[in-house]
Automatic annotation (TrEMBL):
Pfam families: LRR_14 (PF23598), NB-ARC (PF00931), Rx_N (PF18052), WHD_DRP (PF23559). Keywords: ATP-binding, Leucine-rich repeat, Nucleotide-binding, Plant defense, Repeat, Signal. Residues 1-18 form the signal peptide. The keyword Kinase does not apply. GO terms for molecular function: ADP binding; ATP binding. InterPro entries: Apaf_helical, Disease_R_plants, LRR_dom_sf, LRR_R13L4/SHOC2-like, NB-ARC, P-loop_NTPase, RX-like_CC, Rx_N. One of its GO terms (biological process) is defense response to other organism. Residues 170-342 form the NB-ARC domain. Residues 11-93 form the Disease resistance N-terminal domain. The lineage of its organism: Eukaryota, Viridiplantae, Streptophyta, Embryophyta, Tracheophyta. This is NB-ARC domain-containing protein. It comes from Nyssa sinensis. Residues 429-499 form the Disease resistance protein winged helix domain. The keyword Endoplasmic reticulum does not apply.
Length: 943
């Protein structure tokens, strides 16, 4: 964990070094800061060398010393950043710098900083004197790669699960046995992938030991690969097991064992299980020593990593993904283990707490067996079970029965690179069952300094890679996916969260205040307040805290919030989403190191001019606030990357007023680091449109109140944004035309396009957007069918059209729209026929027809949509619905897919806020489905 502190401090050191020239303090401080960076690199190397020996108490103490030194360095560098001059316009800087150099702050930088550097050097010398930094002492512990170290991991799961009945694994077991025993004579590899504790090893062991399987092979072997890969030991183990399984002699000790193994298996039909593979290169190395003959041999690989599971096999048919148990299986397994003395029957007075405990286990066989095994030894009293439910986190740390859960999760954590560890631990900040949006999480990681640009990728793109890696390792759950396969929101399992919370608090990564009247420790870097109380604002100063999150506001008034903000000095991340604020707290502008500020879903109306002091700000999130105008001096925030300011009004969904943007003054061209800008209201300052052309790094742009005469400047500016991925343009009214024809070089990688307003014709350049996956056309009122242009888009997955076409027929031609999954047609008043030719839209999954008053029947050819999963119908005419109820036998398959007469979703304000926002920004179908699911209800689940 100390390596996370070092990584953050190194990032900060690089930032300070790059700023010294601007501050004109190069000669005075560069040497000292470079020394700090060198010491950080040395300590980082020390920690890498120590990996695997962290369990010893002496080593733990030394790691703590290193972490505290890294924190001291971070504190020093942040103080330097806090006292340094702010960034100004070039013509202003010289005067400001001159004033600064003659100020008292100059004395701080030239005298106190060197003194503090000297103190840090003394601490490092003390560690070096213990022979730690350069020559780490192992204190007699085995090396991480030794058999002793790996045996701990290898023994964990079988100890607790090996004798248990397999619940919910009947189907995967049957499929595994079938693939092992049937098929051709080629050697086949089968992979079983799933999270830690999901039962991979137990399932495969059950198959491996079955008589039906064992009787088909000449030789069998089971080897545990683990993180501590040693090809020699693995080969020796295979030779021994294969030899014993056939009662033949193993090769001579002095021979080349890899060649011996290869020769030995050449003509045999063998079955090999490679349990717990962590690295693709390990698989490649093992594969090289195994013959690839035609004897019908089979290999099963178990792994937590999806990329390994896919890499090992020749077809996805041979990848078995183990998800956690469904409720009936989980409940059955819990009963079997918890009530062994009562034939698996739960006393009525315990049912409530038993259900809560099983839900908390979220279907993990390992967790269910561990927890139920502990409960089987406790008194069957509701209060006793409540105590366990409420203290599962601490029990996992201390109780021998539950510490096995920690031991299973620990290897997955240790296997992560340090940058990924910090991202993984970040989930400990959020309350249980909290779903976190992808975009927010990525912006937070960037603000924290966990990721930087790499290999031509922006920090945000690197952060998304990190998130996908955590999901691919089955450590993070993607609980919502976007239509194009990107994760939309995610979380971690409850017991994984307990593990992360424990790990984070041990290492001062985060301090969580779950109850009122609790307070954080002295060195804590991040503060997560789950249940605040007014007395919190009376606590001591939080000088070490860099990030603060508040998740409950029931007892806090604006005055309490302001008092709390006075306690911070080095804060970099401040999330005040949903806070009871009507006025922008003036204390915020004094937090000059702030990089991330969210006031989303507050009632603030005005952003003060003094926000210019937040020169380090990267994200300003004012979505769903009452802010309608930003101060002119916001253009001084040169590091700003994400400016999100708009308000949605779900009640007026069918008007352009459903979304309120923000006015900005000229000067926007100075914000050249912007990645996201949404939504800007273009009114009297129309020169802004031309200035937008300077924002060449934009990935997302949203503009409101456009006029026809803006077309030329708008197209020229957009052409400069060659990195643009999302473009959202709205005219000033439904009747005003958007002129977008003058764009011969549109952004080549555009993925999402939303055009709201009248169009004389669909711009021809749209057909060149090969990366476009979603397009929304609202109130276009095209006289010519848009499908002739849209069908040329090879990767289009979602097409949303609202009052976009005035004609009477839509014809989806054969073999077009090959990848389209979602089609939404709404308010086509003249439409009386939809034709789907054979082979059109072969992948379509969701079709919505909404308020098409002259459409009297289902689309012709709808029966060819073999992948259709849902047909959503809203406000369709009576004749249409009557015909639907009389559907002939050829179309009877549609009836289970149809949903109609649901509460009118456009005006239903009971939707969650994020669903309302998605509805207003193009994801109509997703919102309908979310709402429909909430209305239809579901059986008890772990979600």
């Amino acid at each position: 964990m100390a390596e996370i502190a070092i990584t953050v401090a190194l990032f900060l050191a690089e930032e300070v070094l790059s700023s010294l020239d601007i501050w004109n303090l190069r000669k005075n401080l560069r040497g000292g800061v470079e020394n700090l960076k060198t010491w950080l690199n040395t300590m980082q190397a020390y920690l890498t060398d120590m990996e695997g020996n962290e369990g010893n108490a002496v080593q733990q103490d030394r790691i703590k010393q290193v972490r505290n030194v890294a924190y001291d360095i971070e504190d020093l560098l942040d103080e330097l950043m806090r006292h340094a001059p702010r960034r100004y316009h070039r013509h202003e800087f010289r005067n400001k710098a001159r004033e600064f150099l003659h100020s008292s702050l100059h004395g701080f930088l030239l005298h106190e900083i060197p003194s503090k550097i000297k103190e840090i050097k003394t601490k490092i010398d003390e560690i070096a004197a213990l022979d730690l930094v350069r020559e780490p002492t192992r204190v007699g512990l085995p090396d991480e790669g030794s058999s002793s170290a790996s045996s701990v991991e290898r023994q964990v799961t079988p100890q607790i699960l090996e004798d248990d009945e397999i619940f919910g694994f009947d189907e995967p077991k049957e499929k595994l046995v079938r693939q092992l025993t049937e098929g051709d004579s080629r050697r086949l590899t089968i992979s079983v992938v799933g999270p830690a504790g999901s039962g991979k090893t137990v399932l495969v062991k059950n198959v491996y030991e079955s008589k039906k399987v064992q009787g088909l092979f000449d030789s069998l072997a089971w080897v545990h690969v683990s993180r501590f890969f040693d090809i020699k030991k693995l080969v020796s183990s295979m030779l021994k097991q294969f030899g014993e399984s056939t009662r033949e002699r193993t090769p001579n000790e002095g021979a080349d064992k890899e060649s011996e193994l290869r020769n030995y298996l050449q003509q045999k039909r063998y079955f090999l299980v490679l349990d717990d593979i962590w690295d693709i290169n390990d698989w490649k190395r093992i594969q090289n020593v195994l013959p690839n003959g035609c004897s019908g041999s089979r290999i099963i690989v178990t792994t937590q990593k999806r990329d390994i599971a896919s890499f090992c096999v020749e077809s996805v048919d041979y990848v078995h993904t183990l998800n956690f148990l469904e409720w009936p299986e989980a409940w059955g397994l819990f009963h079997k283990k918890a009530f062994q003395t009562s034939n698996g029957k739960c006393p009525p007075e315990l049912v409530d707490w038993a259900e809560k405990i099983v839900i908390k286990c979220e279907g993990s066989p390992l967790a269910i067996v561990a927890v139920s095994g502990l409960l089987s030894k406790k008194q069957q009293l509701p209060n006793e079970w409540k105590k366990l439910h409420d203290s599962l986190g601490s029990e996992i740390q201390t109780h021998s029965n539950l510490s096995i859960i920690r031991k299973v999760l620990l290897p997955s954590y240790k296997d992560l690179p340090s940058s990924h560890k910090s991202c993984f631990l970040y989930f400990s900040i959020f309350p249980q069952d909290k779903s976190i949006k992808r975009g927010k999480l990525i912006r937070l990681w960037v603000a924290e300094g966990f990721v930087t640009k790499k290999g031509g990728k922006t920090p945000e793109e690197v952060a998304e890679d990190h998130l996908n890696e955590l999901i691919g390792r089955n450590l993070v759950l993607a609980n919502n996916w976007d239509f194009d396969g990107r994760v939309s929101s995610c979380r971690v399992q409850n017991l994984v969260l307990e593990f992360l919370v424990s790990k984070s608090e041990d290492e001062h990564f985060v301090s969580i205040l779950p109850e009122p009247n609790t307070s954080p420790g002295d060195k804590v870097r991040r503060l997560s307040i789950h249940n605040a109380c007014p007395t919190l604002s009376q606590s001591k100063s939080f000088t070490s805290v860099r990030s603060t999150f508040l998740f409950t506001w029931k007892t806090l008034s604006p005055s309490h919030i302001k008092s709390l903000l006075d306690k911070f000095t080095l804060l970099k991340v401040l999330d005040l989403e949903d806070a009871p604020l009507d006025i922008f707290p003036e204390q915020i502008v004094n937090l000059t190191l702030l990089r991330y500020l969210s006031l989303r879903h507050t009632n603030i109306k005005v952003v003060p001019k003094s926000i210019k002091k937040l020169s380090n700000l990267e994200t300003l999130d004012l979505k769903q606030t009452c802010v309608t105008e930003l101060p002119e001096r916001i253009s001084l925030l040169r590091r700003l990357r994400h400016l999100l300011v708009y308000r949605s009004d779900v009640k007026n969904y069918d008007t352009l007023d459903s979304v309120q943007g923000v006015r900005m003054s000229p000067g926007i061209a100075d914000l050249t680091n912007l990645q996201k800008l949404s939504l800007v209201k273009v009114d009297e300052h129309r020169k802004i449109i031309k200035q937008l052309g300077a924002l060449t790094q934009l990935r997302k742009l949203g503009l409101l109140d456009l006029k026809r005469e803006d077309g030329k400047d708008l197209c020229e500016s957009i052409q400069n944004m060659q990195n643009l991925l999302t473009l959202d343009l709205s005219s000033i009214s439904k009747e005003v035309c958007l002129d977008l024809d003058g764009m011969p070089r549109p952004p080549p990688h555009l993925q999402r396009l939303y055009l709201k307003g009248h169009l004389q014709k669909l711009p021809g350049w749209i057909s060149s957007l090969n990366d476009l996956v979603r397009i929304g056309l609202q109130w276009s009122k095209l006289q010519h069918t848009p499908l002739e242009v849209l069908e040329q888009l090879p990767n289009l997955m979602e097409l949303q059209m609202i009052d976009a076409f005035t004609g009477d027929q839509l014809v989806f031609e054969a073999e077009r729209f090959k990848k389209l999954k979602i089609l939404h047609i709404q308010q086509f008043d003249g439409l009386n026929m939809v034709v789907i030719q054979q082979g059109a839209m072969p992948e379509l999954q969701k079709l919505t027809l909404w308020k098409c008053v002259n459409l009297k029947m289902l689309p012709l050819g709808i029966d060819s949509l073999t992948h259709l999963e849902e047909l959503l119908l809203y406000d369709m005419p009576n004749e249409f619905m009557s015909r639907l109820r009389k559907t002939n036998e050829d179309q009877s398959f549609l009836m289970p897919l149809v949903k109609w007469n649901l509460p009118y979703p456009a005006v239903n304000t009971t939707w969650p806020a994020e669903v309302q926002e998605r509805w207003l920004h193009g994801s109509t179908v997703e919102c309908e489905l979310d709402f429909a699911a909430s209305q239809l209800g579901s059986a008890k689940s772990f979600k």
